[in-house]
User: Which sequence fits this backbone?
């Protein structure tokens, strides 16, 4: 056996071990979602069978306790609305600040990039106060907040891709009588498709699973609770936790995002590589 072949085998073994390591928490949650509460605490790693097998009891109980489908609807509304706003505004902004060279656009670009490295914990208290003052503590206001927090990375990725688009294409469109708005939606947006899909996937996964921002702005006392917030509701107080219903809701929460990611994952590498051609 050559050294190269032995190295390849060792690499495959390492990658398989990493895959199993990352899949274990998901398998743990799925297995325990079908287990009775008592057996989740006493035998968390056992396979449900016999009296430990709760069938779909945890799922029905979790849905009834938390109004899961209502939370699912608000999560879907906030996620779709935020992603659409992020894609529309950040792509237009990136195109403008990349094509229009000035001190103002250069300053704007570096401000957006700088926002990527600022931890959310540094601004969450002032953001909460501002959201209350401006009445943004609603699902519609939350979409605006997500637009602000998601703009940095999105503009950075769009700008990298726009730099790789030949300016000659846009000049030819102007000669043919295209105005800037028509040029953007008819010519630029189709070219941006790989990056658009990549930005959409990354922001969808982030917004769908986000707990802190909805909790700080909307909280537990309103009807607009998202899925991560209602899952936290099952943790209870003074140590009281409904692990069965909690595991079941976690499974229901991750199914849509896993399906979405599996359908679109091939576009992630394409978009990231395409945006790294220049810049």
Assistant:
């Amino acid at each position: 056996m050559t050294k190269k072949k032995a190295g390849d085998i060792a690499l495959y073994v390492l990658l398989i071990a990493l895959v199993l390591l990352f899949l274990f928490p998901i398998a743990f949650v799925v297995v325990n979602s079908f287990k009775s509460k008592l057996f989740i605490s006493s035998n968390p790693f056992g396979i449900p069978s016999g009296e430990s097998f709760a069938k779909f009891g945890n799922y029905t109980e979790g849905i009834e306790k938390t109004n899961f489908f209502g939370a699912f609807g608000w999560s879907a509304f906030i996620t779709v609305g935020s992603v659409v706003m992020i894609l529309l505004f950040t792509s237009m902004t990136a195109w403008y600040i990349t094509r229009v060279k000035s001190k103002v656009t250069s300053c704007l670009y570096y401000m957006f990039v700088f926002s990527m490295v600022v931890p959310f914990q540094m601004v969450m208290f002032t953001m909460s106060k501002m959201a209350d003052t401006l009445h943004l503590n609603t699902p519609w206001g939350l979409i605006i907040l997500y637009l602000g927090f998601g703009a940095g990375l999105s503009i950075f990725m769009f700008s990298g891709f726009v730099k790789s688009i030949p300016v000659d294409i846009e000049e030819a469109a102007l000669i043919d009588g295209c105005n800037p708005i028509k040029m953007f939606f008819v010519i630029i947006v189709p070219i941006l498709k790989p990056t658009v899909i990549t930005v959409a996937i990354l922001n969808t996964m982030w917004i769908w699973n986000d707990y802190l921002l909805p909790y700080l702005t909307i909280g537990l006392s309103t009807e607009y609770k998202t899925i991560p917030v209602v899952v936290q509701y099952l943790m209870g107080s003074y140590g009281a936790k409904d692990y069965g219903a909690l595991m079941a809701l976690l499974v229901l929460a991750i199914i849509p995002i896993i399906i979405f990611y599996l359908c679109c994952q091939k576009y992630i590498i394409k978009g990231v590589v395409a945006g790294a051609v220049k810049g």
